[in-house]
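== Folding the chain ==

***
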Amino acid sequence: MPTTRLTVIDDDPAALDTLWEALEPEPDLALPRIRAVMISTVDGSTTVDGRSGGLGTPTDRLVYDAMRARADLVMVGSATALAEGYGPARIAEAWADRRPGPPPVVLVFTRSLPDRLIEHCAPLGDALQVVAAHGVPGDRLEVARRQGVTVHVLDPGPLRAAVRSLATHFGASEVAFEGGPELLGTFLREGAIDELVLSVAPQLVVGGDRTPLASGPGTSSVPMRVAAAFTCPHGGLYARWVVDGAAG
């Protein structure tokens, strides 16, 4: 019976060219390209004890860092930013020679602009900026701005157009979307994601609360096709998926 052997990429500098090439986006994606980079267990869980940090292998870290090194802009939901203690983006040493210019700005998306988010972002300057949903009360915007937080408000209308307009405002060609699951579900349903770079950690979560890869109200099916896949000696499986219809 025929089998397909995946490319094996070690977490060793000699493999960096192969990994960088595997993460190249489809050439016919329209700009700006918005590419989610996520990790889950074999059973689809994205967190252990509420955080994703315990899932990764060294190769997963290389993938995550490479996506940041490629990106002009990082997008993340407020729950993930707070749970994971987000700060300004940094470019890992492994990819620094491939990254012209400064690290990307991090945009934190919020529906309500709570005090906790304002307090988290205020000391970090413009490296961490906030994107508020259209309709967030003006007094919340004023509170954040008085504390030195840069706040953008999404345009009304379809989310896909609003997010792409925001990325274009920043001059971004490539955007790394880093979660979390609820915001990813919203972006996928609204057609605001072009690709998904998914790391499957070599483990199962038995018992406990499950956090799916993408969540939200109702049920939606988002067709995808795999564009690249590889593995590593630690047992992780990595795939770059293109959302059907995103590329011609």
Remarks:
- DSSP finds seven helices and ten strands in the chain.
- The mean pLDDT is 89.
- The helical segments are 16-22, 58-70, 78-83, 115-121, 138-146, 159-169, 181-189.
- Residues 4 and 233 are 17 Å apart (CA to CA).
